[in-house]
């Protein structure tokens, strides 16, 4: 039996030796090797791929072998080499990679994100530590990054590789680029950094909007003029500059690290800025003003992005206008003329002189734009379909505005003047004490109904739904 075992052993040994010497192909080193010192961009022969150990077994070119050492193969992580196939293909890949083969970067900001795509709004796939080293693979075209002032930031997007194998995209504004020819990289090890903070990670992944935006969403009373400013708090994880934008102020704070100061509380090192997560959707941001007073502002995480809310509100307004337009578009009144709506959102109103100047400005011309920006309160919503602002073209290009609540019935369009005192922001909260009501018939039934309503009317509050005083 001993000769048989010896034969089996010899066969296995031969197979093992031959498998280690058989080439899988050639690859390009993406991350330099320290011992021996082999620079990134080097073409290496590849012998084994181990998916269990997550390594390649590669050959060491003679020019990089340490003197006195007989070994000619080493293991390197799978993520640090790109297998090309033939030696020719590997050399072509190395040539294309050569402008960036030695280019590395050190992060100047703790928490700087690596993104799934070259866009500050893309999903974060990795959060860099302060001083961490990454490998630059290639520059790429991406979405323009802007700073606190709204101006473009200097720098560009790079496709990068982390030491532990994560590939993604990082903007260079907070990176220190340098060339490295091989050997030891002075990277700060992760075990020397602060522990991971999942609460901070979740906070940084969310968009924080002005508290007033949350109130708008909760009540359904959206003011597009307010939303268009995108008032918010931006922790600045891509730029190292935290930004506060509200109706009353705009501030920026440049920092290098966000450090935990307790349960769900953090401080932006080097600045008077701190933040506290009061709930899953409410963030308190505090800073010391020049007079030494501590000021607190609240920001909220909305259920959808501001841009999506703007789209939804725009669609709501378009639908309301479409109802008015399609039900008309021509409406007529014996006393208040003819009101015509056009498909592009404009109107023309002739014969409205009885409402000038108490309701309509004397400088208003007979045309303008219908703006469905207003809402009606819950109390009024059962009696009115909505509210709008009529933006009249004016003499000298100066527009004037008049607000109305309205209701559509089978005969036509009822409009009621809304004085400024009846508005709370963009919401009509009450009727005027002496409401001015103007009724327009649909043009196709005007002739049939004019005998029943020979004049338009001014309504007055009463216990019944309406009482009318005919105008002379």
Total domain units: 4
Number of helices: 7
Structural class: alpha+beta
DSSP, total strands: 34
> Helical content, roughly?
10-25%
Large-scale geometry:
elongated
Description:
There is one protein chain. The chain is of the alpha+beta class. It folds into four domains: 20-97, SH3 type barrels (Roll); 103-193, SH3 Domains (SH3 type barrels, Roll), CATH 2.30.30.40; 202-303, no CATH class; 308-470, no CATH class. Helix content is 17%, strand content 37%. It is built from seven helices and 34 strands. It has a nine-stranded antiparallel β-sheet with strand order 16-15-14-13-21-20-19-18-17. Strand 20 and strand 21 (294-300) form a beta hairpin. The chain is elongated. The relative contact order is 0.07. Mean pLDDT is 86; it is low at 6-20, 187-192 and 446-472.
Question: What's a concise summary of this model?
Answer:
The protein is built from seven helices and 34 strands.
How would you describe this structure in keywords?
single chain, SH3 type barrels, eight-stranded antiparallel barrel, 7 helices, 17% helix, alpha+beta, nine-stranded antiparallel beta sheet, 472 residues, 34 strands, 37% strand, elongated, 4 domains
SSE blueprint and pairings:
Blueprint: H1 2-21, E1 25-29, E2 43-50, E3 55-59, E4 73-77, E5 81-85, H2 87-97, E6 103-107, E7 113-115, E8 124-127, E9 133-140, E10 157-162, E11 167-171, E12 175-179, H3 198-205, E13 208-210, H4 211-219, H5 224-227, E14 232-234, E15 241-245, E16 250-254, E17 258-262, E18 265-268, E19 274-279, E20 282-288, E21 294-300, H6 306-327, E22 330-333, E23 337-341, E24 346-350, E25 364-371, E26 375-376, E27 386-394, E28 400-408, E29 412-418, E30 423-424, E31 427-428, E32 437-442, H7 446-449, E33 457-460, E34 467-470
Parallel strand pairs: 26-31
Antiparallel strand pairs: 1-2, 1-5, 2-3, 3-4, 6-9, 6-12, 7-8, 9-10, 10-11, 13-14, 13-21, 14-15, 15-16, 17-18, 18-19, 19-20, 20-21, 22-23, 22-32, 23-24, 24-25, 25-27, 27-28, 28-29, 29-32, 30-31, 33-34
